[in-house]
Amino acid sequence: MTARTAVGSADSQPRSAASPADSSRFPVETATLDRIAAAILDAAAKAGATAAETEVSQGVGQSVTVRKGEVETIAYNRDKGIAVSVFVGQRRGHASSADFSDEAIRDTVDKAVAIARYTAEDPAAGLADPDRLAHDWPDLDLYHPWALDVEEAIELGRETERAALAVDKRLTNTEGATVAFGESEFVYANSNRFHGGYRSSRHHIDCAVIGEDAGAMQRDYWYTAARAPEDLQAPAEVGRMAGLRTTRRLNARRLGTIECPVLFEAPEAADILGAFVHAVSGGSLYRRSSFLLDSVGTQVFAPIVNVREEPHLRRARGSAPFDNEGVATAARDVVRDGVVQGYFLGSYSARKLGLATTGNAGGTHNLVVTPGEDDLEGLVRRMGRGLLVTEQLGQGVNPVTGDYSRGAAGFWVENGEIAYPVEEITIAGNLKDIFRDIVAIGRDVDRRGSRHIGSLLVGRMTVAGQ
């Protein structure tokens, strides 16, 4: 897509041209989304709304799952929808529909206005401030359609599964391999003369296999995900990784209760970062339901921890030129040398807190944790003796106190080397202590999602087993 101007009338917005083949994948043309967004704002004004915003969206996708070489499921989606929020003074109403007809548009707007009239006034309600809206933005290279037909997807799935099962003869069963593509497009517009949108894509291949040895079974998986199909791992590599990860978990043991260092593999480290995000997001803060209240300017993490929000990384999962309110996104430090620099706020939560929006209505954008020098093997050697966590189970995080207790599986490490797999254990601590006790961050950064982080070595946690 080309860069587009965002503030002005709907008719004045330059948009990227889509090829006829690309356009035919979606239920309607881009121009139809633009027209509907403008019609909704016009209908809202006529119905008595003092302000309004809308998102008009559509999506297409295909998912094929192969199990034991046979096709198990083929699923298609071809969706569209309208979401409307209106304000009557500081009363807010919301309604949605999947019907793009003119009559449905009027009915949806009328319902939103009716809801607003019966809603209590909220001083924090309203659109984003006009001076915070995006005016123009670069092409972030987010849309890469995958011309993949069903037969091709089936063969890729079979290739993935074959590679997984070929790793070890003890791999006796499979949950299958899935090959999927997804494409979406939206237009967001509001009565402060913002109108903009773009297309994006996300594709993935995953595989899960089951191994059995001495009557005990284990399961593990692997996946690849990317905006562009050429950035995906090869199917055979995805399968091989799934097979290796399952095989190495066979003959797992339980541990006794012990306090020791804990090394979170990169995908699990993203969960630790997610707990921080939740604690310093607007809803948790203004409801006073966070263990990190009033934390800006305080030392929350070890000094080695630096977290930067990078919304404009090309092709990245969390990239966006503006947030769900049209507020321009910008790169910023969230944590510097372990000190919290800012929260994650949309306009509503910012007003509740007496602060300014950070452009995070709808969530965060590419949180990048500065990596260290060691890869995972190097961190295992550095830990010496302790627990390597490769899977966590359950939702045992108390967002008010920071208490952390989750089921886990992984590997026991002795003398800087993996000794044996472990299962049916619990890891526990308090997130305040865990954050401050981060000893090292790996350079094995997982970039498949929107949290780009390497493995995390924590100095000490409680591990409970037998």
What share of the residues lie within helices?
10-25%
- Class of secondary structure makeup: alpha+beta
In CATH, what is the homologous superfamily of the largest domain? PmbA/TldD superfamily
Q: How many beta strands in the DSSP annotation?
A: 19
Q: For the report, how would you describe the main beta sheet?
A: 6 strands, antiparallel
Level-1 CATH class name of the largest domain: Alpha Beta
Poorly predicted ranges = 1-22
Integer tally of domains: 2
Strand order of the largest sheet: 4-3-2-6-7-8
From the coordinates shown, what is the CATH architecture of the largest domain?
2-Layer Sandwich
Under CATH, the topology of the largest domain is which? PmbA/TldD fold
Descriptive account of the structure:
23% of the residues lie in helices and 36% in strands. The chain is an alpha+beta fold. A six-stranded antiparallel sheet has the order 4-3-2-6-7-8. A five-stranded mixed barrel has the order 9-14-15-16-19. A five-stranded mixed sheet has the order 12-11-10-13-18, covered by helices on one side. Helix 2 packs across helix 3 (102-117) and helix 4 runs parallel beside helix 5. The protein is built from ten helices and 19 strands. The protein has two domains: 4-244, 2-Layer Sandwich (PmbA/TldD fold), CATH 3.30.2290.10; 258-464, no CATH class. The chain has helices spanning 20-23, 30-46, 102-117, 150-165, 235-247, 266-279, 282-286, 347-353, 376-383, 431-436; strands at 4-5, 51-67, 70-88, 91-97, 136-137, 171-190, 194-213, 216-226, 258-264, 307-309, 332-336, 339-340, 367-369, 386-393, 403-414, 417-430, 438-441, 451-452, 456-464. Residues 1-22 have low confidence and may be disordered. Strand 6 (171-190) and strand 7 form a beta hairpin.
